[in-house]
Amino acid sequence: MDIGMVPDEVDARTSNVEAANLPDFDKLKGDAIGSTLYSESALLKTLMTLSKETGDNWSEQMEEQLCSLWDMTFEEDVITLLMQHDFVHLACHVIQVTSEPRLIEILVGVLGNMTALKSARQSLSQSSTAEQLLSLLSSSDTPTLLQLVRLLNSCVWHVNRISHSSDGQDEDEHSESQSEVDVWVELLKNSAMSLNENLSFILRSSTNEELLQSTLELLNNLCCITSKNQYFSAFLSTSVMLQGLNEALHQLLNVGSSLSDTNNIVWEDKIEKAAQHWSQTLSTFTLHETGIVLLNDQRQIIMRSLCCILDPLCSQENMFPLNSVKLEVLDSLVDILECLKNKRSYCPPAILPRLLTILSLISPVKEYDGETEWRGMENEEDSKKHSEILRRLHNYCSSVLSEIETPQFLEGFGDDSFSKAKKLLSNLLKCSDSNVGRIVDIIKRHLK
């Protein structure tokens, strides 16, 4: 029997035992934690063992007990009991005194599970506790970092959920929810310098794909925080963070120093997630002057990353089936491109052919029988987003095409540019959208 577990049925071999022999089972059921089948006395015994941890008495038996505790914390009743015994304080004390990486990993993992409960998040947001946990971001132990980033992602996700969904709450509930948001926002603002330093270092130096993905997700969630008309992404809009974002993206996409490396990328889950978090994070930079200045100062580096994402989407195999995440990625990329264009009329030649190719793929096309094939979305909300993306791509491409000279237009196609431009024009001619028709007219003038 696993430690801490109470059997939910009597073994078949004892089914004929007289009732007089069953009081121990009833006693065990009375020892269960809430509605679970976990034993409270076994859990308390584990906590007693943990409280005696001095940093040098780590053992395999203790690891097994704590791993069982870790599994148990998927149950809310278990978390509630741990909160009653001040587990957050106990765990932080042990983390402080021990140098055993596995012990720290498990304890941070348990705390991460506990963030499902509001009282646990409130306890974790206490300044001394939070500062201790945030200091672990400088750890060199990847398993610990994975659990820590998971914990922070959960807390920040709840902050965003609360701050964006106050509908239906009465005044007291709203005030209490806002208080939780304010505490976390202030805490994160005070830690912005260390967050920049540690998260950017993870992105630049880690080779663990799961850690890179989780850290990109954390940054995306952090940058979505808004409080009192202030964007938290302004505190993370630094050159060192942007460098980390780009290096992590290139590693996850497995691209080298040449853009030709992106031609054979297969769009899969890990690439979609990386593209989503990278593009949405940079999209939030466009909302304030600090980020706008940074994006423009680093525009050449950003453009290479943009091409790394756009290239695989230029193939029909990768673009379809079109889903909501791809639409979100395209929407965020247009945010970045519009920001650069509006600030300095900047649009490198390499971007336009890629956008026009994507436009030819996701626009409605004419069939031979005169009917139109709609390459849209079944979901109404996604369909609206698709239409909005088409509109934004039309506007951006039309504007750039009208402002550049023919040599600039052809430069973006590389070798054999005229033939490639003619082929793209042929694909655009198949589109039934009148807005694409206006783009076609401008391209025809460039190719005369």
UniProtKB/TrEMBL annotation:
InterPro entries: ARM-like, ARM-type_fold, Synovial_Prolif_Regulator
Keyword Zinc listed: no
Keyword Glycosyltransferase: no
Location in the cell: Nucleus
Entry GO CC: nucleoplasm
Key words, A-Z: Nucleus
Principal localisation: nucleus
Family membership: Belongs to the SAAL1 family.
Entry protein name: Protein saal1 isoform X2
Organism: Frankliniella occidentalis (Western flower thrips)
